[in-house]
Design a protein that fits this description.
Elements: H1 2-11, H2 27-44, H3 57-66, H4 72-85, H5 89-93, H6 97-104, H7 110-127, H8 136-139, H9 147-157
Helix pairs in contact: 3-9, 6-7
Amino acid sequence: MAESKVRKAAAKPAVKAVAKPTKPESHLAMVRRARKINRELAELYPYAHPELDFDSPFQLLVATVLSAQTTDLRVNQTTPVLFAKYPTPEDMAAAVPEELEEIIRPTGFFPAKAKSLLGLSAAVRDRYDGEVPGRLEDLVTLPGVGRKTANVVLGNAFGAAGMTVLASAA
């Protein structure tokens, strides 16, 4: 008898749940959702701030470029000497590449980083009158600056909302 109940249950076709198609989220709805997430994150992490030391958007931009593949501690140990010698984009753009490389050597990958710093400094000097631009679209045109670096600068130097995903040290 139990066997016949199993056969009857197996003979019945399975009911398929049909998912209702969802409408694409409007731009306004997406902005509202992002702002809500940003508020909730600010409540959860009220003391979130960058570990890099900086006094200006230019210093944060340079420090963030230097932070690739090294620790913030190492960058913070390197930048005081760097900014004492090259405090402005104009000064850094005019740097002798070998001297710049020697200062940033402890951060690793110093030839590539020096090339990026020289290029971004010249671009800030020439295209933005020595002021770091406050728009993502402009920042990502600078040598050595990708979306992550741009968002770090926008969020921490300009107070713009943005999402920066950092690799865990764990």
